[in-house]
Amino acid sequence: MRTTKILLAMMLMAVCCTEVAAQGFRMESFPEGSYSPVTNINRNGYPRVLKDGSVMFRVNAPQAQQVQIDLGGTKYDMTKGEGGAWTVTTKPQVPGFHYYSLITDGVSTADPASQSFYGCSRWSSAIEIPETGMADFEVQQVAHGEVRTVYYYSKVDESWRPLMIYTPANYDVAKAPLPVVYIQHGGGEDHRGWMEQGRTAQIMDNLIAAGKAQPMVVVSSNSNVRSRNGGFGGGYSWQGMQTFRSELIDNIIPFVEKNYKVRKDRKGRAMCGLSMGGGQSFYIGLRDPEVFANVGVFSTGMFGGIQGASNFDLEKEVPGMLTDTKTFNKQFDVFFLSCGEQDPRIEYTRNIVKTMRDSGVEVRFNSYPGDHEWQVWRKSLHEFAQYLFKD
User: Fold this and answer.
1) Whole-prediction pTM
2) Nearest to 299 by CA among 370, 232, 240, 235
3) 13 Cβ contact list (under 8 Å, min separation 6)
C-alpha cells in the first residue's frame, strides 16, 4: 500500500514539474495584487502571496484523492477543481521564512514548484514573505563578499567534512587578518542553514557596507558530528557538548586559522548559534573564555520551554558566572541573548536574563516578533554582528 502511495507521489511530482514548465509558455491569470515569492522556481507560477500575506497554492494532480499543504505545522486541505487542479488559500502569514510540504494521499514530499532547503531533518520546500524595513536581509547594490564551500579532515569523525565560509568584500586583498565568527545551526539543519535560510552573506554585506559592522569572516560548520569512538555532538549539557567541542576547537578552528587570513586571538573570535547551536555556543563559548571573547545565544531551549528542560542552574553549568561575576564579565567583550516573542522559550529566557542581571552579569538581550523561526535568527545575527570587534 505504501509503495502505491509513493508511486502516486512521484507521479504527482512529475505532473507538477510539467505544470511548472508549461507555465513558462502561457500567461497565467493570478489574483489581483498577488506576487511570486523569491522562493518560487518559476516566477510566473504558484504559490502566490496575496495582499494580506496569505498564500494561494495550486497543484495539478488529477489522479490524487487528497492533497494537502503543510505550512509550518498547519495542514490545509486543498479543493479539487476542473482538470485536476487543487487549490487552497492559507491564513495570513507573518513575514519571514516558512518551511512547507506537499502531502499527496498521505505521502509528504517537497513541492517541485518551490526551492528546497535542508531543515526539519529533511529537504523541505519554503516560502519567503518579506518584512518591511528589513532591506538588510536582501541583496543590495553594495560590495559583495563570497560564500565558499571547503572541506577539512575531521579527526573526530575520521572523514572529510564541509564548511561554508563567508569572506567579506576585498578579503583577498586585505593585509591585516580579520576577526572570525563561528556560527552554529539548529537541530535538524546543517552547515547550509545560516548561509542559505539565514542569509548571512546578505546581512554581513549590508552591515559592513553601511559601516555598522566590522569586516569579518563567518564560518558555518555541520555540528551533526559523531565520534568514531562513540558520542554525538548534541544534548543540552556540558557532557553532551564534548564531541562537537573537540571538533570545533581541535579541528575546525585550526583549519580556518591555517587557510584563512583570520585573527588567532580570543578577542578576534566569536561563537554564536540558534536553538541547538545556541546551547553549543552557551556551553563552549562561555566555558572556553581562552578561545572566545564574544558569545551569542539565540532561542536556546536549555533554560526551559522545551521537553526535558527545567531548573537550569547557571552557576553549575558555568562555574563562576554568579559567584565571581567580576571575573566573568572581564572575560567577555560581548555576551548576547535573544529569543522570539511568540517562542515557548521566551519567558524562561527572560527569567534567566533577569537572574544574570540581578547578579551583575553584563548580558545584552533582545526579543523580536516571531516564534522559533528564521526571521528571529536573522535579526539576532544582524544585531549581534554590530556589537562585535569594536576595540
Assistant:
1) 0.90
2) 370
3) 109, 112
Instruction: Count CB neighbours of 206 within 10 A.
Output: 21
Could you tell me the three cell numbers for 46? 504558484
Cβ neighbours around 166 below 10 Å, total? 24
157: cell is 569523525
Cis peptide before 47 (omega within 30 of 0): yes
> pLDDT above 90 covers what percent of the chain?
83
User: Residue 15 pLDDT more than 50?
Assistant: no
DSSP conformational letter for 35: B
Q: Are strands 269-274 and 180-184 parallel, antiparallel or unpaired?
A: parallel
Category of 162 on φ-ψ map: left (φ > 0), alpha (ψ -120 to 50) or beta: beta
Farthest-apart Cα atoms in the chain, separation = 71
Bridge pairing between strands 180-184 and 217-221: parallel
Kindly report the length of the chain. 391
Q: With residue 74 as reference, give the H or E element that holds it.
A: strand 74-77
Report how far residue 271's alpha carbon sits from residue 277's, in angstroms, rounded to the nearest whole number: 9
**Is residue 130 classed exposed, middle or buried when 0-12, 13-18 and 19+ CB atoms within 10 A define those classes?**
middle
Nine-digit cell string for 214: 566590522
Helix (H, G, I), strand (E, B) or coil at 161: strand
Using DSSP, state whether 13 is helix, strand or coil: helix
Residues 6+ apart with CB under 8 A from 185: 191, 193, 194, 220, 222, 223, 273, 274, 276, 277
* H or E stretch at 7: helix 2-23
pLDDT tens, residue by residue, 46-89: 999 999 999 999 999 999 999 999 999 999 999 999 889 999 99
